[in-house]
Amino acid sequence: MTGELDLRPARRRPRIRHGAGFWVVAVTFLLVMAYSTVPTPLYPLYQQRDGFPPFVITAIFAAYAVGVIVSLYVAGHVSDWLGRRRVLVIAVLISAVSALMFLMWTEVPGLIAARFVNGVSIGILTATATAHLGELRSVARPQENAVIAASVSGAANLGGLSLGPLIGGIFAEFLPAPLMLPHLVFMVVLIVAALAVLLVPETVEIPEEAPRYRPQRLSVPPGARAPFLVAAFGAFSGFAVLGLFTSLAPTFLVSTFLAPDHLLAGATSFVVFAAAAAGQLLLAPLPVRTQFGIAIGACGAGLLVVAAGAVVPALGVFIVGGAVAGLGVGLLFKGAVMTATSVADPARKGETLALIFLIAYAGLAIPVLLVGAALSFATPTAVLLVFIAIVLVATTLAGAIMRRRAPRVRRAATGQR
């Protein structure tokens, strides 16, 4: 009997503290998001190899976004009762499976399938990791402003999206087998990350009997319809801007600026997403109303500069405008997530975050598909200008409404101090 009792501690997985677990989850979040955008500068190589038209690129990208949306709908909220850590590990391993698919199935149908599976991992990951980070930080630093956790979460999300194209561009420009090696490297990295997440503390109480499964409810938190819908509108319009630079930036660089360099394609996307992530971190100490004011100005000014760069054309102006717009979109998206978190029922936080990410990734997919279709009968510059006009109005309007509601959102998001 005593021997059995003595053996039990040896069977338990070692655990790390909540503070360290916070950073493990943040780094894992960043790595998985980075891998999701590694293919961005590789699309021209796939196109050159297989000879498909630009619309196929948007179809491959849309498969990713559809995977995100589907998984958010069917599994984005299950961590509320299955546990954050368990679901997070599953999401990371699914991303590793998508890397294996890229290695084993290299034709266009394989690219579409691999991107869909990769999107599934992101849909499961985003809401789960965002909720897990907030809960880990609240235990490790109970007196800290909740904006800090939201800023780190947003920076991991958008920072990962920014690193992916740069890493992909480096592989494409300087390393051998650029359509194979990055997927192999990330498959190994993701498996290691999944093992690390196993050591992170769980932050939700897992019921002995799981509730009956149902897909994500497409409903807003009770009594908070107006602020949630505004936040969703901001997330949708902001991700529409990011989607343009994630999927079609290499196409515009070649057709409008005659710049086929793969590293440049990755660096362009990197600058936009890095500005979004940096803005979330560096401007976190500012009052929420001030952050929304900066978001409105940066989105408007940046998109206008992007348009000017496309018309002239001037590549440097185009990239600078993308960076300024990225800064604004980062702040806008963080504000949308904070708004959704502040009005969510604590018992359904994962569900609410899953819905806001579902809407955001719809903004990533739908406008890009429309842009890709428009490129078949209109010039890239004309399509870009129409797109910019629409998202400029949308992001400015959403930011202005959320700024007006910011004092109430800030009190809710701050919580106990």
From TrEMBL:
Highest taxon in the source lineage: Bacteria
Pfam families: MFS_1 (PF07690)
Membrane topology: Multi-pass membrane protein
Transmembrane segments: 20-43, 55-75, 87-106, 112-134, 146-172, 184-204, 225-245, 265-285, 292-312, 318-341, 353-375, 381-401
UniProt xrefs under InterPro entries: MFS (IPR011701), MFS_dom (IPR020846), MFS_trans_sf (IPR036259), MFS_Transporters (IPR050171)
Span of domain Major facilitator superfamily (MFS) profile: 20-406
Protein's name according to its UniProt entry: MFS family permease
Organism: Leifsonia soli
Taxonomic lineage: Bacteria, Bacillati, Actinomycetota, Actinomycetes, Micrococcales
